[in-house]
Amino acid sequence: xxxxxxxxxxxxxxxxxxxxxxxxxxxxxxxxxxxxxxxxYRINPATAAKGxxxxxxxxxxxxxxxxxxxxxxxxxxxxxxxxxxxxxxxYISPLLIEARRLRLTTDDVVALxxxxxxxxxxxxxxxxx
Length: 129
Description:
Elements: H1 8-21, H2 34-41, H3 45-58, E1 61-64, E2 68-71, H4 75-101, H5 106-120
Antiparallel strand pairs: 1-2
Helix pairs in contact: 1-3, 2-3
């Protein structure tokens, strides 16, 4: 995980966010400590703390004094909304810009997406019964 070219603290924050979104780290559950993350990823505890603080600043994690960091209520929805917005910015907006260049209507784009999704949803030919 720690090797995709982005700063390590961002990777730590994203990994924790992934765990919250997929339910591995439920709301109101205790998040891994700075020391646990540092030991697991073999990184400096300050780097792990920086990753945790990204999520604290977003309101995703909060501290219970003397107990540790916990996942905030509503964190999953908050993270999902953020990722949906990022998805729209990264993929949907450019798709719509290109569709306009090609004079495709919204219905045309939806039909193309539907057509592609049915072929993607099919198992590979060797896996079909």
